[in-house]
Every structure is written in structure tokens, then in C-alpha cells.
């Protein structure tokens, strides 16, 4: 029990305290039909620049009535050079070290260290889409006014959803350096769901190795490591989403080995350019799974039972979107056989 609870704790903090940098808008009704090319170009340039920046600063994260303060240290560079360190300055002590080949989450109160080989991106650059030009199907993107965040001039970018299947976003970008300074997310009633912002940040010429060393070694803690069995492409997929919700496309379809599962789980990963949804299909035999609906911050999950399988849909999207994915799951069409 302690192991599973600790994993959930670490995942919750990392995904919802940091990675779920999301953004907000003011009014969907005022948007033009097409996105502003200048706004899309700013997002593209910011994404390219942010990965190579070296910086340190203090982030404030707010979700509902909860407030957390974190220090972030980021080393930019190539994919094999980028590293970062986050640690809490308020509340329960927690720390995350991201290296090129693994992510380490240190939980002093639980006397545990969780190691994951999944490569979670920098939560600041995570809010900037890799390919902004693909957003137009699901969002309308435009420039807002100028503002100031952490003592820096910031250009606002508004990202409005075209339907109720995703959230809207607002970004504050340091245009000079291409650094995201603040990110708000609003629901369909334009109420803030989450806010993440720098209260202070400084760009530096380099980040010494010592800055990235954990504050606690964790040598005497319990170390929880991922299943070492490698994931693989689903050579003969058993399941598919024949008609994904508008704007979402299939990014990957794999067989994954997850802790607590004796057999591989079929994993379908979808994205609309900003929001992502994962669909997991596992055998029901030998499990005591029940249908459930859960929300942790912006992360929602729906579990449904169908025939001999358990369907779990997880994503940073409104509940209606999770249900659309779950209800759209169907057996994959058998491959055509040449005569």
C-alpha cells in the first residue's frame, strides 16, 4: 500500500504542481475564425528558444484554494544536455530532478525515492506546443496586450478552444528571451482553474552541476523503480478509437508494461497540440476494478468495464472529453488479407 500511495503522491505533485501549466482566455466570442500568424510564430520561436535557456527562479502555483511555492533550476541545451531541478519551498518537502535519461522524485516525509524513465518535459516549455501551426483545428490563437510579470515585460497570447472538449489558455511570454513567465487556465465559464507564474527569475550564462544536485541524497530511503520490461509498438492492435473527438489525433499506440499488471496494457495516446489524453485497455480477468470517475486538479480519469477488459481514460481535459474517448473505444478492424 505504501508503495502505490507513494507513487501516486509523486506523480500527483509532478504532474499537477508543475507539469500542468495551463492557460486561460477572456472571452471566446470575440475571436476571429482564423488564428493570428504573428501569435503562432511567437509560440514557435518561444518553443525553440526555451529549450536552450539557462535560468533559475521561484514559481508560484495555485489550484483552487491551494498555493505552493517552488524553486526551479533549468539547464538548457541539446536533448542530452537538458536537466532541471524543482523543490518545494512551502508545504511538504518534495523534490524532482530531471536528467536526460530519467526523472527522480524525492519524498523525504515518506522516506522514498521514485525513479521513472519517462521523459517529462520542462513544465515551462510544456505549455508551448511543438507545432503551433497544428492548433488551428481545435483552437483560435491571437496576441493580447502587453503586461509585466516578475519585473519583465511580457506579451500575452490567447488560445481559445473552438468547443467544450478542451480548456482555453493564456500565456505571458518574455518576448526578448522566449521564456514563459506565467500561465493561466480557465474553464468554459472563464473561471481560473490553475495559475502558474514566476515571481522572480534570472537568466544565467551556465548552470553548475552543483545546482542540480538533490538537497537530500535519499540513500537510506526506499527506492521505487519502474518495470524494466521495455514497451513496444502494438504490432497487432486489438483496440482503436475509430472517430476521436474533433481536433485529437493518435500520437502513439503501444504495448506498455505497468506496475501491478502481469500482462501488457494497450496504450493509445492522443493530442490536439496542447491537451493530451491516454486510453489504457487491460484484461479484466484477475482484477477487482470498479467503474470510477476521479479528478485530481485538472487531471481527470474515467474507468469503465466492458466485457473482458478494463478501459481507463486519463487526460487534462473536461469530463465530457474523457467520456467521448471511453465510449468511442471499439475492437480494431482485422488487417486485410491479400487474395
UniProtKB/TrEMBL annotation:
- List the InterPro entries: MucB/RseB_C, MucB/RseB_C_sf, MucB/RseB_N, MucB_RseB
Quote the subcellular location field of this record. Answer: Periplasm
Kindly indicate whether the keyword Signal belongs to this entry.
yes
Which UniProt keyword terms apply here?
Periplasm, Signal
- Give every MucB/RseB N-terminal domain span: 39-214
GO cellular component entries: outer membrane-bounded periplasmic space
Q: Which GO terms describe its molecular function?
A: antisigma factor binding
Q: Choose any GO biological process term that the UniProt entry carries and state it.
A: regulation of polysaccharide biosynthetic process
- Matches recorded under Pfam families: MucB_RseB (PF03888), MucB_RseB_C (PF17188)
Name the predominant localization: periplasm
This protein's record includes keyword Signal = yes
| MucB/RseB C-terminal domain: residues covered | 236-329
Family affiliation: Belongs to the RseB family.
Q: What is this protein called?
A: MucB/RseB-like sigma(E) regulatory protein
Q: Which organism is it from?
A: Alkalispirillum mobile
Amino acid at each position: 500500500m505504501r508503495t502505490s500511495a507513494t507513487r501516486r503522491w509523486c506523480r500527483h505533485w509532478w504532474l499537477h504542481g508543475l507539469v500542468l501549466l495551463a492557460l486561460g482566455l477572456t472571452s471566446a466570442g470575440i475571436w476571429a475564425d482564423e488564428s493570428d500568424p504573428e501569435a503562432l510564430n511567437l509560440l514557435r520561436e518561444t518553443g525553440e528558444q526555451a529549450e536552450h535557456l539557462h535560468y533559475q527562479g521561484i514559481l508560484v502555483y495555485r489550484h483552487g484554494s491551494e498555493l505552493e511555492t517552488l524553486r526551479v533550476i533549468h539547464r538548457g541545451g541539446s536533448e542530452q544536455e537538458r536537466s532541471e531541478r524543482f523543490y518545494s519551498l512551502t508545504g511538504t518537502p518534495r523534490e524532482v530532478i530531471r536528467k536526460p535519461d530519467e526523472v527522480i522524485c524525492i519524498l523525504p516525509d515518506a522516506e522514498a525515492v521514485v525513479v521513472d524513465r519517462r521523459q517529462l518535459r520542462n513544465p515551462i516549455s510544456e505549455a508551448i506546443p511543438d507545432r503551433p501551426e497544428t492548433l488551428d483545428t481545435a483552437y483560435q490563437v491571437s496576441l493580447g496586450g502587453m503586461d509585466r510579470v516578475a519585473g519583465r515585460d511580457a506579451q500575452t497570447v490567447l488560445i481559445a478552444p473552438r468547443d467544450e472538449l478542451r480548456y482555453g489558455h493564456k500565456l505571458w511570454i518574455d518576448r526578448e528571451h522566449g521564456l514563459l513567465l506565467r500561465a493561466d487556465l480557465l474553464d468554459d465559464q472563464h473561471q481560473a482553474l490553475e495559475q502558474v507564474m514566476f515571481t522572480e527569475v534570472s537568466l544565467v550564462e551556465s548552470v553548475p552541476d552543483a545546482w542540480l544536485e538533490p538537497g537530500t541524497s535519499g540513500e537510506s530511503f526506499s527506492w521505487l523503480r519502474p518495470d524494466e520490461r521495455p514497451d513496444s509498438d502494438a504490432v497487432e492492435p486489438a483496440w482503436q478509437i475509430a472517430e476521436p473527438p474533433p481536433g485529437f489525433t493518435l500520437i502513439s499506440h503501444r504495448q506498455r508494461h505497468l506496475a501491478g499488471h502481469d500482462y501488457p496494457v494497450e496504450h493509445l495516446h492522443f493530442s490536439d497540440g496542447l491537451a493530451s489524453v491516454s486510453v489504457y485497455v487491460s484484461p479484466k480477468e484477475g482484477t477487482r476494478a470498479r467503474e470510477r470517475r476521479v479528478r485530481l486538479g485538472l487531471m481527470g480519469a474515467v474507468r469503465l468495464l466492458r466485457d473482458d477488459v478494463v478501459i481507463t481514460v486519463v487526460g487534462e481535459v473536461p469530463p465530457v472529453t474523457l467520456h467521448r474517448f471511453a465510449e468511442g473505444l471499439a475492437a480494431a478492424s482485422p488487417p486485410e488479407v491479400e487474395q
